[in-house]
Write a structure and sequence with these properties.
Structural class: alpha/beta
Radius of gyration: 35 Å
Number of strands: 16
Strand order of the largest sheet: 8-5-4-3-9-10
Strand content: 5-15%
Number of helices: 22
């Protein structure tokens, strides 16, 4: 508006635009209702992470660890066109698993708790009052996954229950299906290259995945699929998932590592792009919701007010089949698991994410924020490195400059304020920002000690690393032993303080008598003086009761308190365990890396103290 008014004044016009009138003209020209609003902070956080540079770093680290752990090798230039950046060794794609949790409500509710009653009045002449929900919140969590040989792993149901010993109904077990696949087993007869695996069920108070269930998932569920798993190349298992609840737990990370199972987290706030299961959950959940609604409506037709869907209907809702109703009627439901997680859909999800095959296809996604470097020659027609999004950004910059220059030529000299330049980053700065630490270095281990969030982990590892890799395990143990070192320092300090208290009491007793005499000896003025001073009384009381509270300050009060505590046996010095950690702590004083083979986690059986340190109680 200031630009236009300046031009009107220079042209000799007395009538200038005001703010309200100018805004009304813009609103009319746009033919829409424009409203000022504040941005969503959660969406802004997600957008800040979804950059092309962050995704590229995550791809690079994924490829590095696949090679380092023995799952693949780097492809040659001729192989990249057909297989991507990695060539996986035989059957190693089967040993890489991507999993995720999916919340599902049995009462028709979409998300959250509460809501309107299950039945609401509805008038066909009025708009639909959206999805009716109940307050019961019958929520379950379905943990599903797939490997990169296009096999769906058996699901794990997490049912909400506050009982100490929850029980399953017989019909729930009878209608649960088994899932066929090969996974980590060797090939068998031709045409029979699969085995049947059972579906698992777990209970938690909220019906969600916690640390205990996640540990059970790797110890029994994954171990069932890969019985030969061990921490050697060719037999390891790599899990890929987002950093959800329980992943940071020490027990989960250490148990997985001892089994030979590694956990690689994805890009923070980027699950919608880089997690294959997120691509598959749309179809799976829609069919499950359809089965749930059809089952409830069929029961309502016969049972009316008694109709409901419960936890024990999950096998039918997920695996489909014929469900018996009243009066010997039945209803056929679709197999959501087979339709939503079949090999063709899994393969399509893999191609969308670009991890296996390692095509890095997400770098061209329109949902990523693309940055330009100073060396990007966008205008060159022969430059194949510049993707379409960078060309679009550069095109917008050129158009903005053309419009501003045209306005300036027509006399709107203040229009120069409207010129916008794309923020470019130098190649040197881009490369330096991506080299914080390197794997298997003391610097990375030290940095990971205080890492507790996905963003911090992503930055410290230059784009990602397994949560239980060598550096992470060493960092965890180093942190625990340094905590133990601080405890030893506190005990030593308390030991020194107690030693000083005892020496003070011995001096008082040796020089002024073993008992308190309020009269003491007669001084020159002819009056009697007590043998113990106020300071002496305090020292003797401290010797008898080190943690005595409400100690008086006057002589009479101290004398009265001394008469109460003088019969107490003073605590002796505890000379044990004062130097029990010296040898263990000495190995952490240098600047060199600590050897993974010498950690508690990988050196055989754990002692009771080590189990306590690792939260294995």
């Amino acid at each position: 508006m200031e630009i236009v008014n300046t031009k009107l004044e220079e042209d000799g016009n007395d009538i200038l635009l005001n703010g309200i009138g100018f805004y009304a003209r813009i609103e009319a020209a746009l033919a829409t209702n424009t409203r000022l609003t504040s941005p969503n902070t959660r969406e802004a956080l997600r957008a800040a992470w979804l950059t092309c540079d962050n995704q590229l770093m995550n791809y690079e680290q994924w490829e590095f660890w696949c090679v380092d752990l023995g799952f693949a090798r780097y492809a040659t230039e001729d192989e990249k066109a057909t297989q991507g950046n990695l060539v996986f060794y035989q059957d190693q794609e089967r040993r890489i698993v991507q999993f995720d949790e999916m919340g599902f409500s049995l009462d028709g509710k979409k998300n959250g708790k509460g809501g309107r009653p299950a039945a609401v009045p509805k008038n066909p002449a009025l708009p639909d009052p959206q999805q009716p929900t109940s307050h019961s919140n019958q929520k379950v969590t379905c943990l599903c996954g797939m490997n990169y040989a296009c096999e769906a792993i058996p699901p794990l149901f997490v049912v909400a229950s506050g009982a100490e010993n929850p029980k399953l109904q017989q019909r729930f077990l009878l209608n649960m299906h088994q899932v066929k696949g090969r996974f980590g087993y060797p090939p068998v007869e031709e045409g029979k290259d699969s085995r049947a695996f059972s579906t698992h069920v777990a209970f938690s108070k909220e019906g969600s995945v916690d640390t205990e269930i996640l540990t059970y998932f790797i110890e029994y569920h994954i171990h069932q699929l890969y019985p030969d798993v061990e921490d050697t190349p060719g037999k390891r298992v790599l899990l890929k998932a987002y950093l959800g609840p329980g992943r940071w737990n020490t027990a989960f990370r250490t148990i997985a590592r001892r089994l030979g199972i590694y956990f690689f987290p994805g890009l923070p706030n980027g699950t919608e792009l880089g997690q294959e299961m997120d691509q598959l959950f749309g179809v799976l959940k829609s069919i499950m919701e359809e089965n749930r609604d059809r089952l409830w409506k069929a029961r309502y037709h016969y049972e009316r007010a008694k109709a409901k869907t419960s936890t024990w209907d999950l096998p039918w809702i997920l695996f489909g089949g014929d469900v018996l109703l009243m009066n010997s009627k039945s209803i056929h439901l679709r197999n959501a698991f087979e339709e939503g997680l079949n090999p063709s859909k899994i393969k399509g999800a893999m191609e969308k994410c670009g991890y296996i095959p390692a095509t890095r296809v997400l770098l061209n996604s329109e949902k990523l924020i693309h940055k330009l470097s100073d060396d990007d020659d966008i205008d060159s027609k022969n430059n194949g490195k510049a993707d379409v999004h960078k060309r679009l950004i550069a095109s917008l910059e050129r158009r903005n400059h053309l419009v501003v220059d045209e306005l300036i030529n027509k006399g709107y000299r203040l229009a120069d304020r409207l010129k916008q330049n794309i923020q470019r980053i130098s190649k040197k700065k881009m490369s330096s920002s991506n080299s914080i630490t390197v794997p298997y270095s003391f610097k990375r281990q030290k940095l990971l000690m205080n890492t507790r969030q996905g963003g911090e982990w992503f930055k410290a590892t230059n784009g990602g690393a397994p949560l239980n890799c060598d550096d992470a395990i060493i960092a965890m143990e180093r942190e625990q032993i340094l905590d133990q070192k601080n405890c030893v320092k506190k005990r030593n300090k308390a030991f020194e303080v107690r030693q000083k208290e005892i020496k003070t009491a011995q001096r008082v007793r040796g020089t002024k008598g073993r008992r308190y005499n309020p009269k003491g000896k007669k001084n020159r003025s002819g009056t009697f003086k007590a043998n113990w001073t106020v300071a002496d009384l305090k020292a003797m009381i401290k010797w008898k009761v080190p943690k005595q509270k409400n100690v008086p300050t006057d002589r009479e009060g101290l004398a009265e308190l001394w008469n109460e505590v003088k019969g107490i046996t003073p605590p002796s010095l505890n000379l044990r365990n004062q130097q029990n950690c010296v040898d263990t702590l000495a190995q952490f004083e240098g600047d060199g890396p600590y050897q993974i083979e010498r950690t508690f986690i990988l050196c055989g059986k754990l002692s009771r103290e080590e189990r306590r340190l690792l939260a294995f109680s």
